[in-house]
Amino acid sequence: MRKVLFPTIIIIASILIVARLFYLQIIDDSLKLKSDNNAIKIKYDYPERGYIYDRYGKLLVANQPSYDIMVIPKDVKEIDTTEFCSLLSITKEDFEKKIAKAKVYSPRLPSVFLPQLNKMEYAAFQEKQRKFDGFYIQKRSLRDYQVDCGANVFGFITQVNEGIIKKNKYYISGDLIGKQGVEESYEEILRGVKGVKYIQKDKFNRDIASYKDGKFDTIAVQGKDITLSIDAELQKYGEQLMINKRGGIVAIEPKTGEILALVTAPSYDPAILVGRQRSKNYTMLYHDSIAKPLYDRGLLAEYTPGSPFKILTGLVGLQEGVIDTETSFVCHHGFSYARGRFMRCHDSGVSKLHNGFYNSCNTYFANVYMKTINKYVKPADGVDAWSNHLKSFGLGEFMGYDLPTGRRGKIPTSKTYKKMYPGWNWDSKTIVSNAIGQGEVLMTPMQLANMIATVANRGYYYTPHIIKKIKGDVIDKKFRTKHQTTIDRKHFEPVIEGLYDVYNLGTARGLGVEGIQICGKTGTAENYAKINGKRVKLQDHSIFVAFAPKDNPKIAIAVFVENGYWGARWAGPITTLMIEKYINRKISRKDLEKRMLEGSLQAEYNKYISKPIVDTLINTTVSKPLNTEIKKEDEIKVTEPTEN
Fold it and tell me: Which domain of life is it from (predicted)?
């Protein structure tokens, strides 16, 4: 048996190899198309990208024709480079660099020599194309923006780089791909599938006919249209309100999780990233390290949330049973929580849950937070219980929305403080600033908007998403999955009553709109930067969260205005105007509108421009305020600015 086993294996293996070679060489000739075959020219047919509409069917992004000059380096013969360069307004140095780059990619395969010619440039080159062997025109489509807002929502189209080509075999040199925004998130849906034609050439390099009668040709499949949840009119209005200000606005439909507006300020007209000036304009935006127009503050900026965080402090206190609606604390313009430690407050007198919210009493919520932590024998257990409640609101984690960028924010746990205070017996007094949204808590505007949407829903939320409909397809089921918090529904009602009176009796009185019951919360967050190794206080951020109407809410919103002093000064009026615009489709508070449209914080931002530390300063305050670098001996000295 052993004598025949080895010869048998050799014979079987030989038969398999011969059969495979016969199949590949005689029967299946598709591999010929994958080589740099001199006799076959590959021509691609690029489909139009899918159109983009807003929630009401308004066309936002369409397409316009564009023309790329392609080159096959080995076919480039003796040409008049002076005439060629003059025709296309490029230098001879540019010509040589582009040819060299094309040769590196492949001497035999086509690659883009000069992209995105307009109609006049195309016509001029087409007239003389016969004089330039090795060059031909590839028709494509570029984006045609029907609106001048929403650049951060859409993203942009750019050429693929070598890294993308190596990672994804679909793309070849010169192909376009969506970057940032929905163009990146829904790239495979929007791009469609390009068609391929194989053309036989003769020995004189002339086209003869389709290779194998078109056996291997494929037809281009147009990209699918998508409908966004964005309200284009609301998005535009939000960007207008944020002119000469920095910050973000996020508006959500509570019952669906659909994003109604996603504003980052400053922004830019998406049309400037189309055409041959795209690269130049993108470089200009990219190197603007002061205003950072490419930085989506609504998704990336992690701020201390300030007083809107008191909503969560109250809900957790109710759920943990350490307070009820009648629990009261006496405030003497602040809260003394340790020897020499005082948390300033603009309120005074007896505070309960209801007036604690509408007066934004620091003393009340500091006591609630400490009672929550002190309910447990070990402070570490109390912090983890508190942290778990907050995480059920989607905080401290990536939220899973359908946009390609974001930050997780920060919700501290016992591990946070064990690392911060090794070998030290920290307790609720040490970390009490968490109660009022300072301390180690960080949130993005998107997270804060989702939090207030969850409150509007009385305890549940859907993952925020910007897609509403895909033509011929369905949206991801995760956007239709309800997430329940750990807070019982009954605890939301008294909190909402307090938020409702923020507009009627409290820190936002005077900002209301007749006929709309708005529930909201002002916020003022301390803002620090590390400058030359020192912790320096800058102008506070203005914050506001709200939803409306009180019952059957249609919109939940969070507004951050950097260096905006206090909540009711900038963020509050902007919030009111956005709510009225969405619900009533018109504005009655012309006084607020005029003040917000004409108002500017540029003078505040300009204070730092002439200083050599500007980059450090702006980078720090925009993305992650340094409000957590506190030494042990300093413990925590929190002063919440007065909210007017």
Answer: Bacteria
